[in-house]
């Protein structure tokens, strides 16, 4: 069994594929998803119709590629833990305390940024604490990473695999035994109504980033840990590395859809079947990007997305707090007006949004200015 190395707060290993895949993931958040609608109207091609359909979240049960964006980001946060391959077992109290402080600080920052992103501070000054939405995408990323880190730092690899399986199986039994898989009848809704402070997303009976569904998200992060450890262990054997990623990805993807026969794939409830399907997809994407970026070394491809991935949190926050469409119209509105087709003009504006953001992020990238909690 591979041994974990001691924790070092200064050690950090980056892979081009991980940064590029994170950037590819964020590309669809910052405006990439808006490309398909005007392209479909202009061309009528079935490929763009399919892409447009995939850029919508599933209404309830089911799965689209847009549903993958969130769990893929959580998976990649686990990959960085696995690449570091550190443990706190047997370390001094001072070193443990330093690691805990940094982990808690990162968690609190992400929770706070999540509230800011959702504009969830209420409608009054001082804010009404009961009207704040505390649950958020960033909070879930923070909690998933935090608990995965504690597990990695304190448990041996075999125990980590058992915890991963226990989370998914135990969550299934909990959902199956204490509720159903409907919007208001799930155990998730009951827990959020009882224990989640503040308000839920759009006033729903449950919150899609609520308390109980954070559990299987930890499994997504742990799967990333296992993948990162595999990259760490087999970096000098790319053939074996890729074979393992692709085989594991196909297997878990198939297991998730098989489980779907009795346990529906559902993003909002983050069912165990959904976790397996998204982990399988994440492994397949990681394998592809490792091939492109770290083996074939497609520098243009890697840079295109790594520029976004190295400042993923920054660009995610900016997508909520900055009106990029207004900026694009100010810069490229004249060009857009040249076209007689409104769809062509809209396409110019969307490309302008992506271009402006990429140029700013490239400026930060060239100067190695990376914002991370």
From TrEMBL:
Enzyme class: transferase
GO MF annotations, alphabetized: glucosamine N-acetyltransferase activity
EC number of the protein: 2.3.1.3
Keywords in alphabetical order: Acyltransferase, Membrane, Transferase, Transmembrane, Transmembrane helix
Positions in coiled-coil regions: none
Membrane-spanning residues: 27-51, 63-83, 103-120, 132-153, 158-174, 211-232, 244-263, 269-292, 304-324, 344-365
UniProt name for this protein: Transmembrane glucosamine N-acetyltransferase NagX
Organism field: Microbulbifer epialgicus
Gene: nagX
């Amino acid at each position: 069994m591979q041994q974990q190395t001691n924790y070092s707060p200064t050690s950090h290993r980056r892979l081009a594929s991980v940064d590029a895949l994170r950037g590819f993931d964020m590309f669809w958040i910052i405006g990439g998803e808006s490309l398909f609608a005007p392209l479909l109207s202009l061309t009528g091609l079935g490929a763009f119709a399919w892409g447009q359909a995939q850029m919508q979240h599933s209404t309830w049960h089911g799965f689209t590629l847009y549903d993958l964006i969130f769990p893929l980001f959580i998976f990649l946060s686990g990959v960085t833990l696995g690449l570091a391959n550190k443990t706190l077992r047997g370390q001094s109290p001072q070193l443990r305390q330093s690691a805990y402080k940094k982990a808690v600080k990162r968690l609190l920052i992400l929770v706070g940024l999540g509230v800011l992103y959702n504009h969830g501070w209420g409608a009054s000054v001082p804010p009404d604490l009961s009207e704040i939405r505390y649950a958020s995408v960033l909070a879930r990323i923070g909690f998933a990473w935090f608990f995965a880190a504690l597990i990695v730092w304190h448990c041996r690899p075999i125990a980590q695999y058992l915890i991963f399986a226990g989370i998914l199986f135990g969550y299934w039994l909990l959902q199956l035994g204490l509720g159903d898989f409907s919007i208001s009848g799930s155990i998730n809704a009951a827990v959020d109504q009882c224990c989640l402070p503040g308000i839920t997303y759009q006033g729903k009976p449950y919150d899609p980033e609520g308390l109980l569904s954070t559990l299987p998200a930890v499994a997504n992060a742990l799967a990333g840990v296992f993948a990162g450890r595999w990259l760490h262990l087999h970096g000098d054997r790319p053939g074996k590395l890729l074979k393992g990623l692709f085989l594991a990805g196909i297997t878990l993807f198939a297991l998730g859809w098989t489980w779907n026969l009795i346990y529906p794939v559902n993003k909002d409830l983050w069912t165990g079947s959904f976790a397996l399907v998204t982990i399988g997809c994440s492994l397949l994407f990681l394998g592809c990007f490792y091939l492109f970026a770290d083996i074939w070394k497609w520098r243009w491809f890697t840079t295109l997305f790594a520029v976004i991935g190295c400042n993923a949190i920054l660009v995610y926050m900016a997508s909520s707090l900055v009106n990029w469409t207004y900026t694009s119209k100010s810069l490229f509105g004249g060009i857009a007006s040249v076209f007689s087709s409104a769809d062509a003009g809209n396409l110019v504006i969307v490309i302008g949004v992506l271009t402006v953001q990429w140029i700013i992020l490239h400026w930060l990238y060239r100067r190695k200015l990376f914002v991370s909690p």
